[in-house]
Each structure stands twice: as structure tokens, then as C-alpha cells.
């Protein structure tokens, strides 16, 4: 699955719209994921996962910053995300199924905040982009 | 078997009351066909699906989306027995339509995204959770008679 020039354009435009809200959306997507898909909480036993948690906010910012970096380097995700890929493979070892769940919650978050920009074409490009990021993050698992 | 609390049922029914079934159905099915183009394999006779705008404007897509969501509306009246409600449709999707049940999960998630888009802030994480349970329950029920 390859990101076309149109996909890359859509993703960059969408991320521009996100702008400074990145960290908030990251935290919101995490909260949505923890609530809708409780098994995802098993990776955060050390976190306070209650609404408004400072730890979830901080982690949301981490996720958003990483995605922003990925958007900026969409032509070479493997290089841009290499360190995160190592981290997920050797330390975090999050089961690959969970990347789809977070990706879905990111799409829900974006759709709810930016309905006008969230056209079917942009939606498709973002879905592909999150899948590509997920693939890189799980690429060194075995 | 999925069990809904009284609160979850109330959340689902309340939001459903405000949904335009025809619009939402067309949009959810359309987005499924655009975002996951391989799902078009079930709709060879639908005509032009060659671009996002062709899909979203296709009258057969809209009509079929409405059919699917109308069926969901019936299920919402019978949340305690989704398997019973969808028994015949499950057999149909297995024996005649030959649809991989994975597609029910994909469509369910597209519906959740369409609801988020329409309802914005009102589609809180708690509301989403109830709806994720709903679409998961429907997907399980539709797959239940597969053999």
C-alpha cells in the first residue's frame, strides 16, 4: 500500500488544519481508545487514565508530535520513525492490532472536530497514512 | 453475547433519533467503498465507482446504504437480541452474498466515523463507546450463522 502524491497532499493539508490542536487531539484519541477498547489500557498500568489525566495529556502530545514529524517526512517514514520503530519492537511491544484501534480513534477525533475538511478522499488518505505509520512502527517486531 | 446497560441503550437510542438514516447510510457505505476499495467487489452491478465523488453520488450506493441502516434501526429496537434479529440476514450474507464478516466490522467503524462527523462535540468518548459496542454486537450477530 503506497501513499500517492494526492494522499500526501491530503495528509499535509489535514495536519495543517490540526495545527496547534495536535496535543489535544492526541489526548482525546487516547481517551476514546481507552474507553471504547478497554484492553488497550493494559499497556498503561502505570498511568492515571481518568478524564483529564496529566499523563494522558502528555502522552497525547508525544503521539501528536511523532505524527507531525511523520507528516513532515512522509516521503521517508521508515527513516523518520526508525527510533520509534526500535522502541515499539524491543521495549513497548504493543500488539499490532492496537495500532488500528488508535488510528480509528484518531480518525473519529478529526472527523468530530473538522467535519468540513474530513471529506471521503481526505478520510481515505489519512486512513492510509496511519496504516503506513503503523506498519513502520511494527516493522522490526520479528 | 453483547450486553447493553440501560445507560448505553439510552445513549444509542437518543442519538439514533437524530440520525438521517438515508444520508448517514449512504455516507457510511460510500466511505467504506472509498476508504477500502476492495469492498467494491460485492457491488459489481452498482455502476460507476471509479472515484470518491462517483461513489458518494452513486444512487445505488445511497439506496443500499439506506437499506443497511434501516436494518440497523430495527436492531436498535431489539438490542437484547441482536443474534435473533439478524439471524436471517446472517444466513443471507453467508449463503448467498458470500461476504467476509470482516467487512461488517469495517462498515461499523465507518458508521462510527460518520456519526462523529455529524454530531461533533456531542459524540463524546462515552457516546462513542456505546456505539462501538453496538456496531461490534451487530457485526457478531451478522456473522453468527456463518458455517
UniProtKB/TrEMBL annotation, chain A:
It comes from the Eukaryota. Pfam families: Globin. Keywords: Heme, Iron, Metal-binding, Oxygen transport, Transport. Signal peptide: none annotated. GO terms for molecular function: metal ion binding; oxygen carrier activity. CDD domains: Hb-alpha-like (cd08927). Residues 2-142 form the Globin domain. The keyword ATP-binding does not apply. PANTHER family: HEMOGLOBIN FAMILY MEMBER, HEMOGLOBIN SUBUNIT ALPHA. Involved in oxygen transport from the lung to the various peripheral tissues. Belongs to the globin family. This is Hemoglobin subunit alpha. It comes from Daubentonia madagascariensis. The lineage of its organism: Eukaryota, Metazoa, Chordata, Craniata, Vertebrata.
From TrEMBL, chain B:
InterPro entries: Globin (IPR000971), Globin-like_sf (IPR009050), Globin/Proto (IPR012292), Hemoglobin_b (IPR002337), Hemoglobin_oxygen_transport (IPR050056). It comes from the Eukaryota. GO terms for cellular component: hemoglobin complex. Residues 3-147 form the Globin domain. PROSITE patterns: GLOBIN (PS01033). SUPFAM superfamilies: Globin-like. One of its GO terms (molecular function) is oxygen carrier activity. The keyword rRNA-binding does not apply. Keywords: Heme, Iron, Metal-binding, Oxygen transport, Transport. Belongs to the globin family. Gamma chains make up the fetal hemoglobin F, in combination with alpha chains. This is Hemoglobin subunit gamma-2.
Amino acid at each position: 500500500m503506497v501513499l500517492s502524491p494526492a494522499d500526501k497532499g491530503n495528509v499535509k493539508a489535514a495536519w495543517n488544519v490540526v495545527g496547534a490542536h495536535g496535543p489535544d487531539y492526541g489526548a482525546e484519541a487516547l481517551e476514546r481508545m481507552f474507553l471504547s477498547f478497554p484492553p488497550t489500557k493494559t499497556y498503561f498500568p502505570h498511568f492515571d487514565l481518568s478524564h483529564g489525566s496529566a499523563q494522558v495529556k502528555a502522552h497525547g502530545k508525544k503521539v501528536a508530535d511523532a505524527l507531525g514529524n511523520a507528516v513532515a517526512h512522509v516521503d521517508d517514514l521508515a527513516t523518520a520513525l526508525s527510533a520509534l520503530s526500535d522502541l515499539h519492537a524491543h521495549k513497548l511491544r504493543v500488539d499490532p492490532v492496537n495500532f488500528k484501534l488508535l488510528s480509528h480513534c484518531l480518525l473519529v477525533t478529526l472527523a468530530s472536530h473538522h467535519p468540513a475538511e474530513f471529506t471521503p478522499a481526505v478520510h481515505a488518505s489519512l486512513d492510509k497514512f496511519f496504516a503506513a505509520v503503523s506498519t513502520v512502527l511494527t516493522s522490526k517486531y520479528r | 453475547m453483547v450486553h447493553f446497560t440501560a445507560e448505553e441503550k439510552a445513549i444509542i437510542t437518543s442519538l439514533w433519533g437524530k440520525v438521517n438514516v438515508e444520508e448517514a447510510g449512504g455516507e457510511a457505505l460510500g466511505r467504506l467503498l472509498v476508504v477500502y476499495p476492495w469492498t467494491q467487489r460485492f457491488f459489481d452491478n452498482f455502476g460507476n465507482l471509479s472515484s470518491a465523488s462517483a461513489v458518494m453520488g452513486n444512487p445505488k450506493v445511497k439506496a443500499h446504504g439506506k437499506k443497511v441502516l434501516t436494518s440497523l434501526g430495527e436492531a436498535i429496537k431489539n438490542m437484547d437480541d441482536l443474534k435473533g434479529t439478524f439471524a436471517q440476514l446472517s444466513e443471507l450474507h453467508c449463503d448467498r452474498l458470500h461476504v467476509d464478516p470482516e467487512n461488517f466490522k469495517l462498515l461499523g467503524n465507518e458508521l462510527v466515523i460518520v456519526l462523529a462527523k455529524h454530531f461533533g462535540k456531542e459524540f463524546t468518548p462515552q457516546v462513542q463507546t456505546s456505539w462501538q459496542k453496538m456496531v461490534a454486537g451487530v457485526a457478531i450477530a451478522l456473522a453468527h450463522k456463518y458455517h
